[in-house]
């Protein structure tokens, strides 16, 4: 009897504690002031059971209709602030940039120390700033660097067009053709040379991308962050992550060997990063003299450098490998998906395809490929690419941010070490701002004279497909330029038709599946070669 009373009393005490905690949690927990929480938080799991992680961006956008543009959710132990409109996103990322520039610690990124060595997963540190600066400098997306980009894209644009031509207008799935070309441009920029499409190494990088897509993109893999011990039971996401890392390492070893043996000095991101290991050592060395071996010297090894590397930066060959992985992953899937969606849009909106063709044919013709210098003279193309990024919003929640100090958003306090989701999907489909947001309409970005509206125009300011502020996408300029070069080349040379209009997947991004980015369902099209006039 005593035992029963004791157990009953304990159960009641636990329930009372939970209810009080849940109440406090709702309004003031950890100093959140008046930011509302999504109701019905269950013990331990929080809101996890109410949120389908494979369409998290849509569920959160629906919550914003009930709770307003700034609210909190809880996934297991993690308290997450969600920002859904322009005002709050602008306040956090632009006005208080450094406060919101961290990345949350996650099991998946701590694993293999990716949070310490990569750009994407590293929180806001001096090392991150150093890596961002070094990569941006070596990609040189301005001045003569842009001509180099055209040069680097050309072989793969030609290859892509040959592969489309080879279909002879018969139905073909465009995904692999586009993906291979985009991926090879990334390999060329990072490693300084293309990789043969038929080689084992190219297949390795494609398989790695696809496995990472599953483990870092898809919402369901987040379970590993919340329940890391699942790995003991050979959780399938965990196994895929391990397999992806194995493929990456095999690829890396093989390509690094080639880079070391290469006679010419390669002008590429990886070489520059290895050179910067030397710079980091120089910064630290007493006499300031440049070290004789950089991480990639032909005679030297790629082992972790010794104690003379600035310890607080800790830039090592592992860092270079991780940054390479980031750039390949972030730089391939995003652009390949955008271009595939571009084709799907052309099939659904033939009037857009006709207008693009007319503009390109009139301004550039078909005798040579467009160059980046043509961008200004092709406003409809530019407006179409902007609308594409708004419409598909294929990185719907950006990459999770993390507060680096106690701060606030729109005057409401937010404690340090809070995970923050930036809901770009909600921003770009906000029905109170965008007229009919689910319609693809490039003219949103044109003025009454058919000119592109300036960057200060409200529609352009509210378009943030690459995020904003301190963690804005590192490849924004590259992505925009590459999209332009690839999309115009496709329109110049082909007219695209649906294989069977009744079987075409929907263009509406609400039907896309979540991976690293949102993907439409696979489809086939006919690429009909245009006749030269
Ligand atoms: C259509 C193409 C692309 C889109 C829509 C896109 C979008 C984004 C977004 C939304 C973020 C997260 C920003 C944030 O955390 O707030 C991001 C981060 C990033 N992107 Fe892109 N991206 C694209 C192409 C590229 C390319 C081509 C590269 C290759 C250089 C790249 C490299 C990165 C990197 C390294 C980051 C992490 C930056 C950091 O954490 O500091 N992206 N991108």
Task: Give a verbal description of the structure.
- The structure is a single chain.
- The strands form 4 sheets. The chain has a 4-stranded mixed β-sheet with strand order 1-2-6-3, with helices on one face. It has a two-stranded antiparallel sheet with strand order 4-5. A two-stranded antiparallel sheet has the order 7-10.
- The chain is built from 18 helices and 10 strands.
- The chain is α+β, with helices and mostly antiparallel strands and 533 residues long.
- The structure holds protoporphyrin IX containing FE.
- The site of protoporphyrin IX containing FE has 24 residues, from helix 13 and helix 18.
Distance between the termini: 97 Å
Helix content: 40-55%
C-alpha Rg, in Å? 25 Å
Oligomer: single chain
Family: Belongs to the cytochrome P450 family.
Region (Disordered): 282-312
Keywords: Heme, Iron, Metal-binding, Monooxygenase, Oxidoreductase
Binding site for heme: 473
Q: Topology, pairings included?
A:
Layout: H1 2-27, H2 56-67, E1 70-75, E2 78-83, H3 86-95, H4 107-110, H5 114-117, H6 126-139, H7 144-166, H8 175-191, H9 200-217, H10 223-226, H11 236-261, H12 269-284, H13 317-348, H14 350-363, H15 379-392, E3 401-402, E4 407-409, E5 412-414, E6 419-422, H16 424-428, H17 458-461, H18 476-493, E7 494-498, E8 513-514, E9 518-519, E10 525-529
Parallel strand pairs: 2-6
Antiparallel strand pairs: 1-2, 3-6, 4-5, 7-10, 8-9
The protein binds protoporphyrin IX containing FE.
Residues 119-120, 132, 326-327, 330-331, 334-335, 338, 395, 398-399, 422, 465-467, 471-475, 478-479 line the site of protoporphyrin IX containing FE (HEM).
